[in-house]
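tokens incoming
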């Protein structure tokens, strides 16, 4: 749906300061119908990439290619994108309803169709009860939800959200994740940035991971987990207390009833199992010790 091709962005503030390379040869795709999480630490270049996609700033080199399904002219393409910025400004004295009317009219919607969309979506965004109130009385979570609702009023084909979950408590995050999932289920492509790795792991099918302005990973959440680290295995055996395997293992936990849980590196797993079988110990279970996306994220930060 959107393809970034070798994007490079160099910020030059003045003659005395060194130019800063915020994006360096970044290429990735947001496929149609996908839910893509855009991960990276503070300053990795996520907002810069999103601003380039939205044409708020220009890349130093490289290009953003939009699918013809979004339209052929710039005007048409941007009408098909809903964007929630990192720090949206909300007019404090507008009511929620007036804010949505204002945003809908910016997209050239009629009052009737805006009201229809509000009726459909406000209850799903759990904001219907507050639409008559001024925005200055809204909590952060409510502002995030109404801001997100404003991005989908005009039926965009793709929604791009810059840190929609930041600053929310676990309940606020859960509520917003639920509406992101709903919007995705409606058939919209969703691309959102976050540093909250478990949230991305929970709801996204793809991950793009920036590190210091460079692409560190682009692919499925599953393959980030399987490709990143050699797995350990957890082998549970029933073995007498004095048993000590010859095959190297990382650690052992001794449980009641002669149960032992060994952590074995993948390279030693087969040898370890053969040893168990030869000694006629009972293997109760073998499990992959999968790292979480969060563990990979922190490991990759040091290496990519
Ligand atoms: N206009 C600018 N002039 C100079 N440097 C800039 C400018 N805009 C961004 N940068 C720098 O580019 C880098 C990337 O910034 P960006 O806002 O894209 O990061 P981010 O991944 O969105 O971080 P965060 O998670 O904190 O929002 C940062 O080091 C930032 O200071
Ligand atoms: Mg940012």
């Amino acid at each position: 749906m959107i393809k970034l091709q070798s994007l490079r962005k160099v910020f030059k503030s003045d003659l005395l300061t060194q130019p800063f390379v915020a994006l360096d040869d970044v290429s990735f795709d947001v496929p149609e119908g996908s839910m893509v999480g855009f991960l990276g630490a503070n300053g990795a270049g996520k907002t810069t990439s999103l601003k380039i996609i939205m044409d708020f700033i220009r890349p130093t080199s490289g290009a953003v290619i939009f699918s013809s399904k979004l339209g052929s002219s710039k005007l048409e393409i941007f009408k098909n994108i809903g964007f929630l910025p990192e720090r949206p400004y909300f007019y404090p004295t507008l009511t929620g309803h007036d804010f949505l009317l204002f945003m809908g009219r910016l997209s050239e919607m009629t009052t009737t169709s805006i009201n229809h969309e509000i009726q459909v979506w406000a209850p799903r965004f759990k904001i219907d009860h507050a639409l008559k109130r001024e925005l200055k009385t809204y909590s952060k979570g409510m502002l995030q939800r109404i801001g997100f609702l404003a991005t989908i009023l005009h039926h965009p084909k793709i929604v791009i959200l810059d840190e929609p979950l930041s600053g929310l408590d676990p309940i606020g995050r859960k509520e917003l994740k639920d509406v992101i999932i709903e919007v995705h289920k409606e058939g919209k492509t969703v691309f959102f940035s976050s540093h909250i790795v478990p949230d991305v792991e929970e709801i996204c099918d793809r991950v793009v991971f920036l590190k210091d302005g460079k692409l560190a990973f682009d692919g499925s959440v599953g393959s980030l987990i399987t490709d990143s680290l050699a797995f350990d295995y957890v082998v549970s055996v029933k073995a007498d207390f004095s048993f000590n395997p010859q095959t190297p293992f990382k650690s052992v936990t001794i449980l009641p009833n002669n149960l032992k849980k060994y952590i074995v590196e993948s390279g030693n797993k087969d040898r370890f199992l053969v040893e168990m079988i030869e000694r006629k110990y009972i293997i109760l279970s073998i499990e992959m010790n999968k790292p979480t996306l969060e563990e990979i994220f922190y490991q990759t930060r040091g290496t990519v």
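note: The first strand starts at residue 2 and ends at 11.
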